[in-house]
Amino acid sequence: YIGLGSLYVYGYGVEADPEKGIEFYTKALDSEDWLIRNNARVSIGRAYNLGEGGLQPDYEKAREMYRAAADEGNSSGCQGMGYLYDYGNGVEQDYVQAAGWYQKAADAGKPVNYGIMFYEGLGVVQNYERAIGIFEYAASGATKDSLWGMKVLAQAYRDGRGVERDPEKAIMWARKTIEAAGSGDQDAVEEAMQVLKDLGAE
User: Fold this and answer.
1) Count H helices, E strands: the chain?
2) 44 pLDDT above the threshold of 80
C-alpha cells in the first residue's frame, strides 16, 4: 500500500492524485508490522506537512501522524516532529523543542538534523566540533541518514565552516553523496551537484 500511495502522491508513472495516494497510505495504518505502520504514518505526515503532489498542507494532521510514529520510537517520526518545531509549521517555532525531537531521532538512528542544530547554534549552544563529529559518524554509513551526513560534510569543507576549507574533501564528499543517492534522494543530489559546480568540478 505504501508503494502504491507514493506512486499517486508523487505521480511516478501515473497521473498525480495525492488524495488517492493518502487513501493507500491509510490502508497501511492498521498493519501489525511496526515498520509498515510507521512508514505509513510518516508518509502521510510528510505529504500533509510539505503539501506533496499539490496536496493542501494540513499541519495538524501531519503532527498527529508524526507524533504517533515518534511515540513508537520511529526515527522519521521524531525527525518530522522536529521539523514542525524547526520551521514553525502548525506550531510556534521553537528551536529548543526542535532540537529535543532531533535528539530523539538521533537516538533512533537519524542524527544529521541534530548535528545541524549544533552547527547553526539553534536550540543548543553552537558547537562545530560536535556537529562535524555527528556528520562524520553519519557519513560513515553507521546511520539511516548517512547520505545527508555526506552532503553536509561536502558543504562544510566547501565553505570552511567548522572545518578548515578543503576543496578536495568537499569534492570527494559531494561525489560520494551523488553515488550513494543513485536515483534516490534528488534534493541531496542537487545540493551535492551545487558543491561541485561551486568548485569547478562538475
Assistant:
1) 11, 0
2) yes
Give the separation between CA 63 and CA 27, rounded to whole angstroms: 19
Model confidence, pTM: 0.91
pLDDT digits (tens, 9 = 90+) for 128-155: 999 999 999 999 988 888 999 999 999 9
CA atoms 191, 177, 62, 94: torsion sign: negative
For residue 52, what is its C-alpha cell? 506533496
Mind listing the pLDDT tens digit for each residue in 163-192? 999 999 999 999 999 999 876 778 899 999
CA separation for the pair 200, 175 (Å, rounded): 13
- Name residues whose C-beta falls within 8 Å of residue 137's C-beta, 6 or more positions apart in sequence: 111, 143, 149
CA separation for the pair 18, 50 (Å, rounded): 12
CA angle 28, 30, 32 (to 5 degrees): 100
